[in-house]
Amino acid sequence: MSGQEPPPSDEPGFRTDLVGQLDYGGYLALDRLLSSQRPVSSSHDELLFIVIHQTTELWLKVMVHELRAARRMVTADALRSSFKMLARVSRIQAQLIQSWDVLSTLTPADYLAFRDRLGPASGLQSHQHRLLECLLGHKRPEMLAIFRHHPDIQAELSAELDTPSLYDEAIRLLARRGLAIPADHLERDWRQPYRAAAAVRAAWAQVYRDPSAYWDLYELAEELIDLEDWSRQWRFRHVTTVERIIGRKTGTGGSSGVDYLRRRLDVYYFPELWQVRTDL
Predict the structure, then answer these.
(1) Who is most buried in 19, 38, 82, 218, counting CB within 10 A?
(2) At what angle do helices 215-246 and 198-209 cross, to 10 degrees?
């Protein structure tokens, strides 16, 4: 009724004087973010496909950010600071694995309705995924050719190839702590793929056999194993989801599709950390 007080509310007073102020949409640049989905077909299901991949790229940005910081911490022997960063990346990987559950709701007919419109666009061309691989030690210089049409991206990837990986820095830390590491694992051509060494395996075995004496190195090893464990689970979900949707068709980017992804299941980022479990 006119003149009555408004009913009491449990909610606090909401801010309404937002003209010229930083609001939620402005802070997150939602105008740009939510207008960045540009389907190339009229298919209902293409929006899901785009959002899944854009969300993945956002998470990859955070992962690269955290792993670069963690590498700096390992290089500086500040392991305590690195552990939170590495754990955060593992939790992000868990989120990314769950995204395959959503994408798998896309049936073969759903995807085929717009797949031909994608042209040569492919996840192989995700430069952030290639950066992530480099950071973890899986160096593939041949992948630079894919980014020839983006010189700035190619330059960033090339610089990362020339930089010791997170695992390289972990091994150099073992040497600084007095463990026997071969000289060719302390200084080498960082662009080349990592080669496992019996001496590095023996050094990690020493850490695992006496964790109380090497507690922070032991914890670093387990954080790294977590990273690779989640990464392998992600790759497995990737290949099974792709096979579920397109079978054994050739990939849009020119790969052999499922056969290529299956070969990727055998990749080890930190080989000695897996091998050492047999020795204990």
Answers:
(1) 82
(2) 120
The letter for the amino acid at 217 is L
* CA atoms within 13 Å, Cβ hemisphere of 39: 14
In three-state secondary structure terms, 256 is: coil
Quote the CA–CA distance of 68 and 82 in Å, as a whole number.
Answer: 10
Q: Please, which residues have CB within 8 angstroms of residue 129's CB and are 6 or more apart in sequence?
A: 60, 123
- What CA dihedral angle connects 183, 189, 191 and 194, to 10 degrees? -30
Q: Is the pTM of this model over 0.85?
A: yes
Round to whole Å and give the CA distance between 155 and 149. Answer: 11
| Buried residues in 40-64 as b, exposed as e (16+ CB within 10 A) | eeebebbebbbeeeeebeebbeebb
The Cβ of residue 152 has, within 10 Å, a number of other Cβ atoms equal to 9
Structure confidence by residue, pLDDT tens digits, 216-236: 999 999 999 999 999 999 999
